[in-house]
Amino acid sequence: MDLGIKGKRALVLASSRGLGHGIAVALAREGADVLMCGRNGEKLAANCDAINKEGKGRAEWVWGDLGDADFVEAMVTAVDQKLGGIDILVNNTGGPTPGTTEDMTVDKLDTYFQSMVLRVITLTNAFLPAMKEQGWGRILTVASSGVIEPIPNLALSNTLRPALAGWSKTLATEVARFGITSNMLLPGSILTDRLEQLDSAAAKRTGKPIEEIRVQSEKAIPVGRYGRVEEFAATAAFLCSQPASYVTGSMIRCDGGAARSL
Question: Which CATH architecture describes the domain 9-190+228-254?
Answer without folding.
Answer: 3-Layer(aba) Sandwich (3.40)
